[in-house]
């Protein structure tokens, strides 16, 4: 199985992101049901490895936290443009959760991730670049900002490349703990 760990996005947020699809020739837009925020790509795993990955993720403790999608960016430039994405407002909780998942997976025997983590929601991929239209698209939509939502779980997805494109299936979800009220609120 080809696996990755991600935060599934609420329907209303996926609807808003879907509303951005417009005016980019050559863009292969990610299907709305596939929009997600990757925490860690895992790759192929056999039965024993899946078991170890699940045990490592299930053992992780972390509190729920708010997350806000905002801004647009891209990987690659010009003819090497690979992906258009929506960004994430600076979020130390997300970075800490990602770090914990990275360490849990390494302790389950996985090689350390080679890339520095860059939180993003891939919106479209490109085979041939859209040229200067990308910059006018980003100029038009770059101030995109969605309402924050509460991250209450993360999910282990499988990825299957079908003829009509990638199919992502949520296999297992790992709930986060309820957020404790800040100390001053608890003292009131
Ligand atoms: O979150 P996004 O959609 O940008 O690009 C793949 C996708 O990222 C990435 O994992 C996510 C779920 O498929 N991915 C695929 N192969 C990868 C690899 N070899 C990879 N990430 C890192 N290394």
Describe the model.
There is one protein chain. With 188 residues, this protein is an alpha+beta fold. It has a single domain (2-186), classed as Cyclic Phosphodiesterase, Chain: A, CATH 3.90.1140. The chain is built from five helices and ten strands. The longest helix is centred in the middle third of the chain and has 16 residues, at 92-107. Residues 4, 38, 41, 122, 159 line the site of ligand 3AM.
Structural descriptors:
27% helix; alpha+beta; 188 residues; 5 helices; binds ligand 3AM; Cyclic Phosphodiesterase, Chain: A; 4-stranded antiparallel sheet
CATH architecture: Alpha-Beta Complex
Distance between the termini: 50 Å
Report the bound ligands by name, code or SMILES: ligand 3AM
Strand order, sheet with most strands: 3-1-9-10
DSSP strand tally: 10
The major beta sheet can be summarized as: 4 strands, antiparallel
The run of helices and strands is EHEEHEEEHEHEEEH
Q: Share of helix among residues?
A: 25-40%
User: In terms of per-residue confidence, which ranges show pLDDT below 50 for 5 or more consecutive residues?
Assistant: none
CATH fold descriptor: Cyclic Phosphodiesterase, Chain: A
If you compute it from the alpha carbons, what radius of gyration comes out, rounded to the nearest whole angstrom? 18 Å
* Assembly level: single chain
Averaging pLDDT over every residue, what do you get?
93
Task: Tell me the domain tally.
Answer: 1
